[in-house]
Amino acid sequence: MGWDPLPNGHGKGLALYLSLRDRPGGATPHDARTTASRVSSVVVTLGIVSMLTDMSSESVVAVLPLYVTATLGLSTIAYGFIDGLMQGASALVRILGGWAADRLDRPKWVAFFGYGVSALTRGALLFAAGFGAITALVTFDRIGKGFRTAPRDAIITASSNRQFLGRSFGVHRTLDTVGAALGPLMAFVVLWEIPNGYSTVFVASFACALLGLAALGLLVPDVRPRAKLGGPKVERVPIRWRHVLGGPARPILIAAAVLGLLTVGDGFIYLALQSRDGFATRWFPLLYVGTNIGYLGLAIPVGRLADRVGRAKVLVIGHLGLVAAYAVAAMHSGGTRSTLLCLLLMGTFYAATDGVLAAIAGRVSSDESRASTIAAAQTVTAVARMIASSAFGLLWYTIGRSSALDVVALALVVAVPACYLLTRRLDRDVAADDAAAVEANSK
Amino acid sequence: MLVIALVVVAGAGGYGVHAYASYRQTQASATPVDQMALDTALDQPHIVFRSTAPGADYGRVAVVPLSDPTGPRAFTPATCDRVYATTSEAMCLRTVRGIPTTFEADLLNKQWQVERSWPLPGVPSRTRISADGSLVATTAFVTGDSYASVGFSTRTRITGVDGHDYGNIEFYKLIVNGKTIAPVDRNMWGVTFVNDSQFYATAASTLYGTTWLVRGNLRAKTLTAIHRNVECPSVSPDGTRIAFKQATKYGSGKWHITVLNLKTGVETQLDEPRSVDDQVEWLNNSTLLYGLPRKGSPGETDVYSIRVDAHAKPKLFIADAWSPSVVREIQYRTQPRQSVD
Predict the structure, then answer these.
(1) Chain A residues with CB-CB distance to B80 below 8 A
(2) What is the ipTM of this complex?
(3) Nearest to A110 by CA among A124, A88, A122, A93
(4) Structural domain span for residue A414
(5) Are A270 and A280 in contact (CB under 8 A)?
(6) How close does chain A come to B334, measured CA to CA in Å?
(7) Handedness of CA B141, B144, B147, B153 (dihedral sign)
(8) Are A400 and A367 found together in one domain?
(9) Nearest Cβ partner of B99 from A58, A87, A192?
């Protein structure tokens, strides 16, 4: 395997380290070189949970506007208002989820609660007929989603070999994204066979959500990072936010904020593509699927690359993919090829940033504040991107599509080297730490 | 786990099979409404609408004579989610089912054949044609994906029947109280045409917490706010009043019908207790038409009428109907039409 970062002898040492520290029933040296054995079964299970949950949510997302207009006879216009408001709320809930997971030392059950809330909203959709009911359900779904993300990523971190964190997150995000692609497909197949079969879509979605919930509840171990640390009796110490924000995670939080401020919403990119070519207009509702396919194909290789060359490096440099996507979208004329290229670039950007950010935050945090640190990094990114989108909307309106995209691309070109310098030490420290661990274990 | 998985999959599968069977049964049954010849209906002042009577013809565009709206209806070959017709043409916004599902705007000629077709970026919402038949407006609702939706949620585009594109009116200059503003979350929808260069529409911003009635100018590409808390305006045939849906509270999802007198600025709220989420249509200078979903039976709708009078009560106008448009004057037909009977 060309990707393998380490010569053979070290590979065996790693396998030993892996089976001693992280995988009680786990790897044997001869299969330690494959991705499957380097990624914990817990991560794969969580990936499947996310896949089922994403199938569930994306199938509903794909048909909900149609259902609301065609069947309920409501215009969906006001629904858009709620959407914007909820994004802010979901960022806050995310912090809460991370905090609760650390404080209770029960990331699994906190995540379960989040998944459970979302699953319930699917079941309730069958009975929702009014505007108020639908928006309430969409709101609860968002809250559930915000709540579960950080605890789940903390479990992934805790169950993975530290050296293959990027790969583990890559595997998880790939499965997750597969679900996001299968969901709309499932919904469209149902509507193809049964044109008014919205309730069938909701039932199928509910079934997926229940399967995911059951898999999480029954198959994922109840990881308790703090209990493992401190023996049977652990005091429930409050999480020190100063520690989370000022600790080793600080450079990555700053970089996430700076880069997030220059990441305008995908919606704008799609709008830019749509405003210049017919291909993008026809497929507008599905452009995000193109991005997802790029993301899906690249999440594992880029995660492995991040493990090898440094995660912060990949995260920061991955933003050059976004620069290229802006540049393509800013071109005055376009066509099918440049639209597809732009989507692929966005997929690359997501592969280099989404899972990798969680891997970095999980790696540099201590066991007792892991979920909080991951939540902090993700919230910083989400809030910064929301601000970026607002500002970009204004910029687009003032100086036009192409110039606005060029300005942001240029700013990113300046920000990337700065963030690279800022986070360089993180990769070095992690590499040194990992090398020391390998050393200690091979003795 | 295995037991749970089996139970869940069997339950969902059973539901799907049952739904499929009952759908086939409905499709096989004839639409339970009286029908008439299409030519007869079109040769007199008439109303074009989307028929929501269950059965094989669900969603088909239908026509009833203005003189007998509750009587038999004539079905056209077109199937649309939203339709608007004049004497010379019709606009049809429709869902193209498939994997994946896409959306389309079709300009139909007098024979209900597609003259021109262009893609819509989202779910069909509103459409209008100018009285002279030269301009069409479409509003589509764009959701994007759950990962990264930004403030853009409606796309309203004005196009010439000749193919000229006047663009997305979201990027027209929005002027409120003499000042140009550009809130990032602005949305525009629900165009109603005054003539071949002017129109009214809704502009909204959550940041400002309001919706505006704007007067649009196609040549200057401007939108000037002239009133607040107005959605989906519809200008009366004589051009003196605008009927619209007015939110009981911003973002509440409940609307009543109000009529604004453009000369005096006086608003008249009509006595329709149910929430109306539609772009109303003028039957004549004193009566409005609008669609309402039938309570308790999803997918079924009725068109109601109400006189423009604070004390008038709504009346059922056409059952099993949606998206009405009134064609008052009948042009002389240059092409002889094939007779159905």
Answers:
(1) none
(2) 0.77
(3) A93
(4) 243-443
(5) yes
(6) 34
(7) negative
(8) yes
(9) A192
